[in-house]
Every structure is written in C-alpha cells, then in structure tokens.
C-alpha cells in the first residue's frame, strides 16, 4: 500500500502559502492506519527503547499504539499549560511562527532510552525541542520517527546527530 495515496493536500492552511499534509484520510482508513503503524513498528526494531515520547497532538495518534506494540509506556510532550504537574519547557520555531512545549519534570529517569514520535517533520523545531527536553531529564534519544517529512524545509538538518526515520518524504 502506498501511504502517500491516503494523504491529501490542503492549500493555505493554517495560513496562506502553507500546503498542509492532511493525514485524516490515512488514519480513517483501517488498512492505511494499520499499514502506517506496522511500518513505524518495523522502523523501531532493534532500537531497544524504554519509552515512547509523543508530540501533541497528532503524534499521540501514532505514539500510543506504537508504545503498546513495543510494550513500553508513552510520555506526552504538550503545548504550554496543558500538563498538570511541574514541567520543563522549551520554545521553538515553526515554519509559520513560534510555540512552547512542555514535559513533566518526573516523566523520565536518567538513562532511559526514548524514541520520539510525531506525524510530521517540517522545519525540525518541534522535534529538536522535544529531544532537548528528553535530554534535560537525563534520558537518551535513541531515535525520532515520523510518518511524513517535508524535505524541502530541511528539518532533518536541525536533527543532525540523531537517528531520524520518516516513512514518507515530500
């Protein structure tokens, strides 16, 4: 199955000039969603992870079933103000602005091996912020996996030194 066939372009979203890669047809199709999760799990083989860190919000859609498949827990990284306990936060740049993400201060133990999961790698700002938060807790980023990568935005360059896997590249 070509996962690309289940992803549609939405022009001028969330603002004019952006072409949004919409995964809702992919995750709404049982075979497409299963194929995506199977390919993510295959990409994670041999990484020896203790936890999945998933990025709000679409990363949760893939991170939770992936964590279940791998038999590990899932740690959310959320937008500022969404987590109930003490957090560390990191500001980052998007292709169309800035944002702040947070992780609970007690979410990970030093030395834990973590795989970061999200739906999209664009400029790399969100992913890099997540990796820095994980490392601030003393955990080790064993890799980052994405369903889609927008290669023309060169986000992978920001993640130099990390093991990055993307299922679909545009």
Topology record:
Blueprint: E1 8-11, E2 19-22, H1 24-28, H2 30-44, E3 51-55, H3 58-70, E4 73-79, E5 87-94, E6 97-104, E7 113-121, H4 125-136, E8 140-149, H5 155-158, E9 164-169
Parallel strand pairs: 3-4, 3-7, 7-8, 8-9
Antiparallel strand pairs: 1-2, 4-6, 5-6
Tell me what you see in this structure.
Strands 5-6-4-3-7-8-9 form a seven-stranded mixed sheet, sandwiched between helices. It has a two-stranded antiparallel sheet with strand order 1-2. Helices cover 29% and strands 36% of the residues. It contains five helices and nine strands. The chain is of the alpha/beta class and 170 residues long. The chain has a single domain, classed as Rossmann fold.
Rg, Cα atoms, Å: 15 Å
Q: What is the number of helices? A: 5
Derived structural class: alpha/beta
Number of domains: 1
Could you tell me the number of beta strands? 9
Query: Would you state the CATH class?
Result: Alpha Beta
- What is the fold-level CATH name, i.e. the topology? Rossmann fold
Major pleated sheet: 7 strands, mixed
> How would the global form be characterised?
globular
Low-confidence stretches: none
Taking the alpha carbons of the first and last residues, their distance comes to 17 Å
Strand content: 35-45%
Order of helices and strands: EEHHEHEEEEHEHE
Helix content: 25-40%
Strand order of the largest sheet: 5-6-4-3-7-8-9
Averaged pLDDT: 96
Write the CATH architecture name.
3-Layer(aba) Sandwich
């Amino acid at each position: 199955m070509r996962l690309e066939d289940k992803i549609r372009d939405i022009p001028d979203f969330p603002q004019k000039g952006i072409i949004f890669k919409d995964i809702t047809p992919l995750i709404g199709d049982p075979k497409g969603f299963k194929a995506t999760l199977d390919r993510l799990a295959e990409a994670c083989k041999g990484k020896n992870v203790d936890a999945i860190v998933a990025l709000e919000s679409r990363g949760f859609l893939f991170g939770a079933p992936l964590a279940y498949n791998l038999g590990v827990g899932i740690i959310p990284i959320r937008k500022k103000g969404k987590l109930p306990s003490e957090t560390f936060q990191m500001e980052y740049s998007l292709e169309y602005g800035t944002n702040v993400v947070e992780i609970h201060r007690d979410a990970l133990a030093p030395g834990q091996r973590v795989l970061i999961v999200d739906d999209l790698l664009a400029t790399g700002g969100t992913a890099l912020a997540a990796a820095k938060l994980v490392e601030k807790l003393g955990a080790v980023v064993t890799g980052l996996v994405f369903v889609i990568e927008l290669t023309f935005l060169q986000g992978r360059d920001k993640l130099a030194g990390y093991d990055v896997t993307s299922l679909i590249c545009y």
